[in-house]
Amino acid sequence: MSQLLVDQNLQKTHYSIDLAKRKRQRVEEKSQAETQKEVKEIPEKNAENAVKLESKDLTPAVQPEQKHNTPFRALYGESAAHVKHRYGLYQKIWGHQKKAIERILNSANVTLFANLERYVEDPLSDRLDTAFLGLSSNTANNLRLLDEFSLFINTKSSFQHVKMVRLNSKVCVNIKAAVRELIKQIVEGTTAETDTEEPPEEGLQEEDLENESLAESDDGEDEEEDEGPAEVTGGRISYDFEIVQDWMDAYMKKHKCEDSLRLIIVFDDTDGFDNEILNRLLQLLCIYSNRYPIKLVMALSSRNVGDWINANIISRLRTLIESVKLEARDNKDIGFQVIDEILLQNEITTENPLLIDAYLSLIILNRFENSNNSIDSLITELKLSYMIHFYQLPLPVLIDPSFVPEKFHYDALRKLPSFKLHMEDLVHKFEQDPAAHESTKILRLLLSNKELKALFDESKIRIQKYQNAVMNAVNMVYWLCGGATQKFQIYKLITNNQFVNSAFSSGLLKKVASYNEEEFDEFTAFIYGPHIKDSVGAHSDDDVTKLKRSLGVSAPADLKALVTEYFNLNKHLNMKISDNLFNEVLTINGGRSELDELKPPASIEENYDNLMIHLIRPNHRELLEAALDEPQKYLRNPLIMESIGRKKHNTRLLGPPLCKLYQVYKDAPVNINLWDFYVAFKLSLLKKQIIAEIDRHVQNSSEDVRARLSPIMEKVKDPESEDTWDKMVYGWFIQGCYELNAMGFLKEKVKGDYMDKLIWKNL
Fold first, then answer.
1. Do 55 and 72 lie in a common domain?
2. Which of 61, 286, 512, 670 is placed for a possible disulfide with 320 were both Cys, Cβ 3.0 to 4.6 Å?
3. Is 223:176 a contact under the CB 8 Å cutoff?
4. Are residues 468 and 375 in the same domain?
5. 258-294 pLDDT, tens digit each
6. Helix axes 375-392, 331-343, angle to 10 degrees
7. Where do the H-state alpha helices sit in 610-722?
8. Which of 536, 481, 550, 529 is nearest to 509 (CA)?
9. Range(s) of the domain holding residue 671
10. In the prediction, which pLDDT does 593 show?
11. What is the CATH classification number for the domain harbouring 202?
12. Domain co-membership, 344 together with 290
């Protein structure tokens, strides 16, 4: 029984305590211990039935003995094969989406990489060649792009003699560290090539080790200061740029590449460099640019390159730099391209069988537009949404046409909200007109799994028609607005049933009413083009077919009426995606709660009870308060109880002293006197129970721990001595105050004997 509780609770994301239920469970666990021997004697073939008989309140029972070796948990009586199939579907579908995303990202900056390639291949100038690369404000996106550029350089056969160096502000804390890192990356990995030509100098490795230790102790003082002979081993210091000259001579002697050798130095986060260090490093590189084939690529988190140069590079260096300006593609455009090509397709395939829910589209759109347009965050949100969909329910396996459902799958289908609404609609229609609607249909859906399977297959066809109709409308609206509104924004409006009769659609119709003959012909050509599909397989879009037929016999003056009729009479544009039967199985929602349907449409994404949002951006304040107020929600977790050995003990869970201090804190005034706070905390503690709990842990500890702590516990248990107990309580109190201060609940005042309570002051 206990194992079943563990398996069931592992599937939860939130835990709560029902004390009455816990009391019943303790009684059941006691009876289980008495019958444990009998259960072991049951033959192995009947063991499963015995477990089910013991746990009637947990039906259908999970079979813990079955191994599926996946991160997923068995749900609602699933076998190991079911769990494997569900996990395999997730890997297959997300793997397909991931490859498509990688293909988009790899081709997103083709023009930029072509310009960088040309920049690398161009002959060296008389000055220091520098490419200022304008990127976005998102550091993660910038690093990903630079990684792609490094891979591009390293894998291109014509660049086999191009050596790329990457510098960042975290390593280049001073000029010596920057030069040392620069030299290290140039020479690193090339010893195997140069060993046959010229052996390395003796003592070079020891020298580098000594200089690395000196670098750690370097406090950033003037690098020109004499460091003494200890810094030198074998006549060479680790930040001596002549090391690069020796390496170049050896490399060119071996490969005969005097004209093709390039040293590309990339500054990953140029904005993060200290101006003094950056200018001194540029000055050094300018000096050696006539001797070494050096080219710089300086990545900036801004597209206003001119202002940045004027503000950060000294005027004397600007005359020594031969600069070019390059810009990467905007991350926002790349993000919308990922969404459009991944989620917004007319045809539903086995590799991409799921649609995106209206609420999830709103959340993703708001986060992507209103945050820093992070591509990596967008990919994480999509992956997490797919994972939640396949993790939390056993029904996603039904999207596989080859899967044969079992009885519990059909039972789960009948419990879905969309199926309940469908049945209520059938009952209502039957009550309104019994002659036109047969009552046996309702009974067949409730009792016959075959009928339910046929209904589910029919719903998949309907949602395919819905998707094609929606995407046709999205492409049409996108063309009418001239690309001013992104496709995903239009998709969000339509799937939320917010497009028809909106100000946006009214503006489009006014624009259509003013079309001349030429614009009418362009619109007609677009409707007959490849972007508008009147059918997907055997499933046709009747509204598009009707529109095409009408355009062939109409004039420009009739276009507004035709488009208005298409929008208003298209049933797919006048319903939410959640109105589709079995949408819970055929759409991903990110773990949306049904309570979100009651929220106003203007709510931001943080207001939705969405599991994906909670995992990516949790409400730390709320979680901290809940954990401190009711630690049993977390500490009574069966996994924790089993790990600490509390499974066999029915004593009360005392909880950490910090939680006791928080209970006193809640009743305290805004200005807290520390002495009164300490006294109240001390009186709130259950001395006997705490001492007994600590003593139990001491006795169960190792011999060394027992030897050290037993004398202390004897003093604590002495009723005539309160000093040791007072010291323990005072230690807990001081530690608790510091922890509450670190979490933002308390603030020290100028007067040392008082503290400010912050939680009620909205700080």
1. yes
2. 286
3. yes
4. yes
5. 888 889 999 998 988 999 999 999 999 998 888 889 9
6. 30
7. 611-616, 620-629, 632-635, 638-643, 657-666, 674-684, 687-699, 703-717
8. 481
9. 654-761
10. 66
11. 3.40.50.300
12. no
Together in a domain, 453 and 560: yes
The residue among 588, 102, 592 whose CA lies nearest residue 352 is 588
Residue 613 inside a domain? The answer is: no
616 in any annotated domain: no
The pair phi, psi for residue 200, each rounded to 5°, is -70, 155
Q: Do 182 and 300 reside in the same domain of the chain?
A: yes
The answer on 450 and 414 residing in a single domain is yes
Domain total in the chain: 4
- Which tokens sit at 29? 């666990």
pLDDT for 586-625, tens place per residue? 999 988 766 566 666 555 666 667 888 888 878 788 888 8
Q: What is the DSSP string of 524-561?
A: HHHHTSTTS-SEETTEE-HHHHHHHHHHTT--GGGHHH
Look at the block and give the residue holding tokens 């997300």.
94
**H-only helix segments in 47-79:** 47-54
Whether 546 maps to a domain, the answer reads yes
Tokens standing for 313? Answer: 């590079």
Residues 201-240 have pLDDT tens digits of 443 343 443 344 334 434 444 444 434 333 333 356 888 8
Confidence bin at 515 (pLDDT 50/70/90):
very high
Q: Is 756 helix (H, G, I), strand (E, B) or coil?
A: strand
Q: Are residues 349 and 322 in the same domain?
A: no
Q: Are 225 and 176 in contact (CB under 8 A)?
A: no
Task: Specify the residue for token string 């709660």.
Answer: 593
User: Are both 58 and 188 inside the same structural domain?
Assistant: no
Write down the pTM of the prediction.
Answer: 0.71
**Residue range 716-726: mean pLDDT, rounded:** 85
Count other Cβ atoms within 10 Å, centred on residue 611: 20
Angle at 496 between CA 492 and CA 501, to 5 degrees: 100
* Closest-CA residue to 248 (of 310, 294, 279): 294
Final residue before a domain boundary, out of 594, 624, 641: 594
Residue that is last in its domain, among 574, 594, 614 = 594
